[in-house]
Amino acid sequence: MLTLRKNVLPAVLAVLLLSATACTSESAAGSPPGGAADRFVEPNVDAPRLEPAAGVDARAVLDAFGSRDLVGHLEALQQIADDNDGNRASGTSGYEESGRYVEEQLRAAGYTPVRQTFKYKGGGKNRKDVESFNIIAETGGSAENTVVVGGHLDSVEDGPGINDNGSGVAAVLETAKWLKENGTTPANRVVFAFWGAEENDLDGSQHYVDELSKAEKNQIAAYLNVDMAASPNGLRSYHDGDGSDFGDAGPSGSDRIEDVFAGYFKEVSLPAESTVFDGGSDYEPFLRAGIPVGGLFSGDAEKKSKAQVQAFGGTSGKVMDPCYHEACDTIKNTNADLLKEMAAALAYATAAYAAARG
Q1: Helices (H), 41-88
Q2: Do residues 168 and 228 make contact, with C-beta atoms less than 8 angstroms apart?
Q3: Which is nearest to 76 in space by CA: 139, 158, 6, 170?
Q4: Model pTM score
Q5: What value does the mean pLDDT take over residues 108-121?
Q6: 258 and 238 in contact (C-beta within 8 Å)?
Q7: Which of 47, 136, 257, 355 could bridge across to 294 with cysteines, CB 3.0–4.6 Å?
Q8: What is the distance between the alpha carbons of residues 36 and 22, in angstroms, rounded to a whole number?
Q9: Which residues have a Cβ under 8 Å from the Cβ of 87 and sit 6 or more positions away?
């Protein structure tokens, strides 16, 4: 997560999907002031407003993700960081190897990943151009109602970034693999995205949105983001799409994304709460373009309250991720059970939108 300057199917899937007839804070650097609604650059983007499929079996999805090898991805990313100066930051050999790992996983699952290259201004006095890339993989399905599911692949330079955001990478990868293993072509195209240079200034996701035509923006029904899904003293949270809790609603359609995530947690009897759009992650470029956004977050440098301990367990008065943006953000800094629950929530929402009808 970006530092703020100081979120007709085959048998296998038929088990999960019933018939459609059945039933933190401060603005990021460079962000305009005001609430989320005030940040829209193109508030008139006519993105499709889908009704997500109501027949996704949340419990079945959670059970399926209980046995998926999410930790295996964290182990692989940890090894990559260990072999490359302790980090996976954009523009480094660690990032390149992280990208190759993701591409290999996607190809093995039957996708055809592509790199979207871009340049951004690096840090330091000289602010030299740095080249990086996003990794994009698509399913079949109608492009008229595209669902983009993403998380950032890079770490900060100070550490391996296994919670931030190896956990998100693992969740997106396993969602992509799970969907492909079901052997179905979704009704709506799903784009799986692994963003570069998020830790600089959301550069990868911003480049992706900047490269979209107005017509392509109109086709995106939802952007689902996952950033930090395994915080060791964490919680389960989803973004406040309708603005009812924090006053900063997302673009039209974001309320439905919030409802989908909230519905998942309710169905599987897991406490969860909403979190504010603070501009600190890759949903921000989509939000600013007027595209419906939502996502998952398990906490960073904020201290856990007594009420949150009652709901989620953990330690009151301690930060949710004590190794946020530090060298100690290793695989030991993650909560594997929380990661499975959050990854299942992402898969549930992805499946609901992939099968949705306008």
Answers
A1: 58-65, 70-82
A2: yes
A3: 170
A4: 0.90
A5: 97
A6: yes
A7: 257
A8: 35
A9: 81, 94, 155, 156, 157, 158, 159, 160, 161
